[in-house]
Amino acid sequence: MLSMSTNNLSYSDQGGTDSAVEVGQETTPTSSNAGAGFGLFSVDFKKNEDLKEMLESNKESLKLEAMKRVVGLIAKGKNASELFPAVVKNVASKNIELKKLVYVYLVRYAEEQQDLALLSISTFQRALKDPNQLIRASALRVLSSIRVPIIVPIMMLAIKEAASDMSPYVRKTSAHAIQKLYSLDQDQKELLIEVIEKLLKDKSTLVAGSVVMAFEEVCPDRIDLIHKNYRKLCNLLVDVEEWGQVVIISMLTRYARTQFTSPWKEDGVFDEHNERAFYESDEEKTRDETEAKPYMMDPDHRLLLRNTKPLLQSRNTAVVMSVAQLYWHLAPKNEVSIVTKSLVRLLRSHREVQYIVLQNIATMSIQRKGMFEPYMKSFYVRSTDATHIKSLKLEILTSLANEANISTILREFQTYVKSQDKQFAAGTIQAIGRCATNISEVTDTCLNGLVLLLSNRDETVVAESVVVIRKLLQIQPTQHSDIIKHMAKLFDNITVPMARASILWLMGEYCERVPKIAPDVLRKMAKSFTSEEDIVKLQTVNLAAKLYLTNSKQTKLLTQYILNLGKYDQNYDIRDRTRFIRQLIVPNDKNGALSKYAHRILLAPKPAPVLESAYKDRDRYQLGTLSHTINTKASGYLELSDWPAVAPDQSVRNVEVIEPTVKSKPAKSSDDKFYSDSGEEEEKGSGSSSSEDGSSSSSSEGNSSQTSEESDKSSSQSEKSSSESDSEKKERKTKTPLQKKTVKPTAKDWYHTIMEHIFNEESWTYVTKQQHTKTIFVNVINQHSVLQTFSYSHWSTLCVSLFTQLCPLSLAFPLQLSGPAFVPEKSHDLLHRMTGKGLSAQYQFPRQPCLYQPTMVSVQISLTNTTDHPLEQIHIGDRSPTGLNIHCFNTIECLEPEASVTVFMGIDFNDSTQAANFQLCTKEDHFSVSIQPAIGELLLPITMTELDFRKEQGKLLGMNESSATITMAAENMTSQPISRPVATVANLGMVPSSQDNVHRFAGKTANSGAVVLVTVELRGESTALITINTEKSVMGSMLLRDLKLALAQA
């Protein structure tokens, strides 16, 4: 046995006890223990030797099989660290699948085997340049897992390069590596902040959550880094992965508390029972009308609340809880209740989730009872609930109790008292006591019910009832002397120390009301004093002292006897208390002065205890945090700051700097022209502060500074922000040219007009023309409002012709656009004639490039006057979200009865299906409308060869690829029917294919220009494989869902 234990110990040092047991079961018994021990080692040695031989063989298939087995061991929790040298040799393998598995292994063991991992640093650095994004990301992950300070500069350089990688997955990995490097060397903080600042500007939803987490770890106090990215993060929030949503919401909650003023000031009274404020509100309003400043919510504050509200429907409980805490800490009081239903829905989850959610509800219900009162039945205790869940539900029901529902709650509590769970039954009795304290109308009822429980067979129930009754009697003791007498009669039958001590305290506190019973109770306690618990002995001493002061004739000898017993007790607390009481109540020469105050000290009136919820003070911690759960400040907890008295300057969140005047600009160098952005000039004129305008197009779009002042004004008229005053709107409308009934020019005439604007100066250089193209588009369209009323055929001809001619002049379109393969004729209702008081509006997507701005999606709107009177001044009003970039149509001064007009808008949806909300206004009315784009309408068709298609597809694998196998309808199995449903769902161009069973389609997103590749491969008789490659992974999955539905239907 000794040798066997030694062998096992040695094996534990090498490979792990679990592995030893498993291998030991596979061995055959030998003649001796020693032989068995060596047999054990030999089998394990051969087993690992097999894997090493496979990893060192020349066959890729053997290496791949060995790595699969090794990764399988890791997944089962087995120790495979001794294979590190054999595995690390394959890090330079050309087999992609093998290399992925090697990196999975290295990420797990690089921190443990740092010396061996350092030998492969050069290989990891080379892998950072690998064409495959997964390899680049894995190499960075391994590199950041080597916790050796000597390679910090190498890690820093790798993180900087990865932050600029074309793949969002690699950029996401670099954000994860930032946290690892910061924990290794905090001196790199400033350099890491620069990388974080760069990644915060990233528009990819894949990166957003990770970089915000890095921000929270490295520099949570650098709020200035969030200003410019605030609106972008709010708009991207819906499309970010769930883990990232939780992190971003938590960060934005802290940000909002520092940047916006409190919405609770004039929103109503937080204390629902403050009747004075309720009844005096009207009077105060009239009295201080000149002094009061009504609260106006910051548009960015409203943007955050609006964009997080849809996440209450998330399937992830952490996301729902994050949104709930955000509304609790940031929303006006009358809007907080929208989170109630979502929180109650979470109570159907696992008990771990229930526990956290109930804790937060318990905190919320103390201050806002009305939120959860309609869902009171959801908090009724079930027999299958765990004890801690029952206690929390009990806490919530107690907080929700009021005069209206107390009878229902007390009936429920009657059932709970009979529970077999003793701890829960005791908690129910305490809850009854709290209800009796909080609601004076039921105090007597609760007290009588508790007295009836004194005859219960369960000692725990009786003991808890005594304790609660003692607290209730302190509220109005004069009316309940009979209860004290009843409890004295039950004293001999009660054995729980706390209950006995409570009865003794009551006897001593109200001994004058039961002068005959109290001495008799003291006599009984004198007999059993030595066998009682310490807490009972202390209360016996107190009772003796109080009776000595009030009824010394009957109790003098008993008191001296008890004091003598306590003087020699084993517990020093009892000995000290006894000596103190003796000196206090028995006068002598030394302590005569103190004994004068004995009556005032021992029989002083005591305030009634306040029965409060254990969750009353937990609101000092942010809801949903670990600190709130454990009721203690946890490491890393960031406190919410108080609302600022005066809101900081909101212009810090504006992406573009607004210049109030247009000055004549001197000639600029070519460098200034190249790096300027015509989009910025448009934003300056419009006052728009969309955070989605990034720098991705800054080098490709030209400078519009050379346009005339008249053109600038005309361009800005259609992009005015919603903050304009009415006078400004009227002034703007008078400058807008009226629509005249003239002969409409053809698309060819407009084409020549635009081309003349572009080429009318022979002295322009090629670069200048290239920069000036977009400005000419906007100016000509704005100057000639008749163009917006073109028929669809004219519009289509003009768009395709212009973009075909001007593509060589613009760097904004590296991929050549093509005309739409199919334009759906289906129109969507924008405004019904009943809702619009006679104004009817429908919209459709013409699937043409938007001339106003390349990142916008063109929308065709048909307006119809169904009334019997003209409608005047039809225009676009306020819009939301705040950062939404819309190019509005010019104001329609008059629309005759039964007349229709077609206009065009440009909307930058930012590659998201989030609806564009705005107001369609007439002279007298404002109607809120919404345009919801399908995912396929956010794309533009492009042309490319099959070879180019394959090259682009090779760059978009792994995380950027989505695929599904479907059963197609029989009618869709030929070439023509396949292209039709695909083109119906998405605005994609067809790519020539050399294979009859493979159909390819290509497009790009309107906002970011990200390539979207769709492949439909026919397999068998009725099945097909749909593959979508795009770096916009969320868009890819949504497009895949729509294509599956379209191709599966006949």
TrEMBL record:
Residue span(s) of domain AP-3 complex subunit beta C-terminal: 773-914
Keyword Membrane (UniProt): yes
Matches recorded under Gene3D superfamilies: Leucine-rich Repeat Variant
Biased composition (Low complexity): 686-720
Pfam families, sorted: Adaptin_N, AP3B1_C, AP3B1_C_2
Region ranges (Disordered): 1-32, 662-742
Topology term for the membrane: Peripheral membrane protein
Domain Beta-adaptin appendage C-terminal subdomain, first and last residues per copy: 938-1048
Biased composition (Basic and acidic residues): 721-731
Keywords noted in UniProt: Cytoplasmic vesicle, Golgi apparatus, Membrane, Phosphoprotein, Protein transport, Transport
Family the UniProt entry places it in: Belongs to the adaptor complexes large subunit family.
Protein name: AP-3 complex subunit beta
UniProt source species: Oncorhynchus kisutch (Coho salmon)
Taxonomic lineage: Eukaryota, Metazoa, Chordata, Craniata, Vertebrata
